[in-house]
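Task 17 of the worksheet. Students: predict the tertiary structure of the chain below and write it out as structure tokens. Keep your answer in the requested format; marks are given for formatting as well as content.
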Amino acid sequence: MKKMSFTVVAALCVVCLSAAEFNWKQLGDLYRSGDYANLETTALAMKGDAKGDIRKGKIIESLALGRQKLGRYANSAAALADIDALAGELGIAVTNDFVRSAKLQLLYTRREHTAAVELSASWTGPRTLQRRGIALSALKRYAEASAAFAASGAPGSLVSAAKAALQAKLPEKVYEYSLTAFANGDVKDAATGIQLVNAVLDADYTGTSVTSAKVKELLQTVNRKYSRKLVVNAPSKWDELIQLVRQTLETY
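Model answer:
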């Protein structure tokens, strides 16, 4: 009997440890599935394993978004206050980039884009600026959004900056951000690559510093950086992009 009890206790301990183990993907899956009550329970169980700012920020964001979906907040002020309280519990500053970005994400899901922009007016940090750019884009303030994305430095931020600049009809910025994004390998899908290359080729650069030589430089950068994505006997959008670039280069 004692042996059986020990076995049961040991098994329960394993379950407890597994429940507390931090799993970023699990939190996202629970949110996307709409299982908000389980999201809250799981995130609370993971709090003890949240040792770094990234993990703490994800716990805070998951709890806040889950609680919002569960109707726990009377308004956005209550939600933002809860985020500050959670930050205190986890020992992370309310001025931390991950805490601030959690606030902007919550306001975005509430579609309170103006509030998000006003709140983040003087904020910095990669994730914060990225989400500020998203809020500005939602308000169709594309020039400001482009600048916020570019200042972010977060993964993919220059692609977002180029797209926002395209919406704002700022051809010089479209060129600038696209060139750097291609050079850094930040363009991760061919459709986006085609969109940006066509935007650069179709733009009117009158009165700007962008010359034909600079456009050629961008085309050469794309050709050099992305030709490796060509797949023999399996045409893809990447092939379409490289074909566009190489055919255009023949005219320069």
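Marker's comment: The chain has a mean pLDDT of 90. The domain at 16-110 is CATH 1.10.3450 (Hyaluronidase domain-like).
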